[in-house]
Each structure stands twice: as structure tokens, then as C-alpha cells.
Amino acid sequence: MLKLSGVYKTLKSGDRVLEVLKPVDLTVEPGQVLAIMGPSGSGKSTLLGLIAGLDAPSGGSIQIDGQEITGLSEDGLAILRGRKVGIVFQSFNLIPNLTAEENVALPLELSGFDGDPVQRAKELLSEVGLSERGHHYPVQLSGGEQQRVAIARAFAGRPALLLADEPTGNLDSATGDRIVELMLRLNREQGTTMILVTHDPDLARQADRIVSLRDGHIVGDELTRIREGVR
Ligand code: ADP
Ligand code: MG
């Protein structure tokens, strides 16, 4: 599903070169839920950004569903994000002057969704328990509700790969637990492969596999107990 070979990222800072991510090899099987853990600054968001095509690696190969994404044009990357990859951020990243429904429908419209984007947005908002909130704007929603809209948006295009960067980081723990439950349910129902960056060991334990980063290196890669009834 996802294959990274020798993927690294360097940044120039004055005349110094920072190795933000050392060469990483990582293969993720279809349907797998992978948690990425590691201290702040260890390269988790950098890694996720490279997989999402939001940022270009300094070298190496990234294949999603057999397609090499390094070297794709901006347009190619936008189509990839719209069709294959869904992303959930810590800060929700909803567009403030669009309603919940418009936030979910817009990426479908931009990526040429095969179907009615507004209808699909309504379906997904109902899936995340927000069918009554479609016409609300982000400021009218609680943090947990905004994150549910972001999850609806991320899953709406039926992505093969769902990326989430500390999705519960701005939520209280009870709300965070419900958000995780929701993502795991959608993962089961849609067979989505998921990569979750988290600081939360309880959340990580619910994944199939935990990869640990430190100083831009993978320092651990372990399978957890396979979630009951899933595979
Ligand atoms: P994490 O998500 O694990 O907290 P990041 O991937 O955000 O870590 O960052 C990894 C390292 O790269 C950190 O040391 C950070 O300071 C550095 N870094 C990330 N982005 C930039 C940037 N645009 N300019 C300079 N340094 C950066
Ligand atoms: Mg981060």
C-alpha cells in the first residue's frame, strides 16, 4: 500500500544543513493501522507531510498504491490528495467561511469526485453524527465537532490512505477517545490504511503497529496485539 525507500529530508539553516529526517525505509500493508510515536522534534510531522505530498523529500522513493509520488507536479499531488489520501490535522484546518457541508464537499469537487459531492458530504456528516450541523460554520462548532467535520472531509473521497497528525492533540481526553473510536470504525468499514501520529500511548495501543522516531531515525517498529475482531 505504502512503500518508502531511503526517504530523507534536509533543510538548510544559514550554512548548516539540518537532517530533519534521516533515510527511512517503511512498508505499510493495506488496511494496517500504524501509529507513529516519538518526542517533539523527532520528525513525525515531517514524515507525514512527505507521505501526504505536502512537502517534497530531499531524496528517496515514496510509492502509494504502486504509484511513485516524488516528482509529481503540484496538480498531480492535488489529485492524489483528493482521490487517494485523506489528511486530518491537530488544528482541524477547516475553511472558516465555508459551512461544515461545504468543507466536506469542496475537496470532492476539486478532485473530480465520481458522484454528487454535496450528497456525499451529507452522508459523511451523518456518519460522524453531525447531520444536523451541515449548515453551521466552524466557529459555531465545538473542537470535537470541528474534528469530526475534518474526519468526514478526510474520508469522503474514500481514500486508500488516511493520515492523521496528532488528531486528538487539541481535544480533551473524552472527546479525543470518541474521535479515535470514530476513525477506527471508518477504518474498519472502509478498509482504509491509517497512519496516526500521536503522543498518546493509549491511542497508539489501538493501532496494529507502532513505529517510534527519535532524532529523525526509526528506532522502534513493533506489532501490537491485533485489534479484536478486525483481522
Ligand atoms: P515532530 O512532528 O516530531 O514534533 P517535526 O517533523 O515537526 O517534528 O520536526 C522535526 C525537526 O525538524 C525539528 O527539529 C524541527 O525543529 C525541524 N524543522 C521542521 N520544519 C522545519 C522548518 N521549516 N525549518 C527549520 N526546521 C524545521
Ligand atoms: Mg509534529
Can you summarize the main beta sheet?
6 strands, mixed
Radius of gyration: 17 Å
Report the order of strands and helices.
EEEHEEHEHHHEHEHEE
SS-derived structural category: alpha/beta
Question: What gross morphology would you assign?
Answer: globular
Helix content range:
25-40%
- As residue ranges, the low-confidence spans are none
How far apart lie the N and C ends? 17 Å
Query: Beta-strand percentage?
Result: 25-35%
Bound molecules: adenosine-5'-diphosphate, magnesium ion
Instruction: Report strand order across the widest sheet.
Output: 6-7-8-3-9-10
In short:
With 231 residues, the protein is α/β, with parallel strands linked by helices.
Please describe what this structure looks like.
The chain has 231 residues and is α/β, with parallel strands linked by helices. Helices cover 33% and strands 28% of the residues. It has seven helices and ten strands. The protein has helices at 44-51, 74-83, 100-110, 117-127, 143-156, 173-190, 201-205; strands at residues 2-13, 16-28, 33-37, 59-64, 67-68, 85-88, 161-165, 193-197, 209-214, 217-223. The structure holds adenosine-5'-diphosphate (ADP) and magnesium ion.
Question: Which keywords apply here?
Answer:
about 230 residues; alpha/beta; 6-stranded mixed beta sheet; 4-stranded antiparallel beta sheet; 7 helices; about 30% strand; binds adenosine-5'-diphosphate; binds magnesium ion
List the topology elements.
Blueprint: E1 2-13, E2 16-28, E3 33-37, H1 44-51, E4 59-64, E5 67-68, H2 74-83, E6 85-88, H3 100-110, H4 117-127, H5 143-156, E7 161-165, H6 173-190, E8 193-197, H7 201-205, E9 209-214, E10 217-223
Parallel strand pairs: 3-8, 3-9, 6-7, 7-8
Antiparallel strand pairs: 1-2, 1-4, 4-5, 9-10
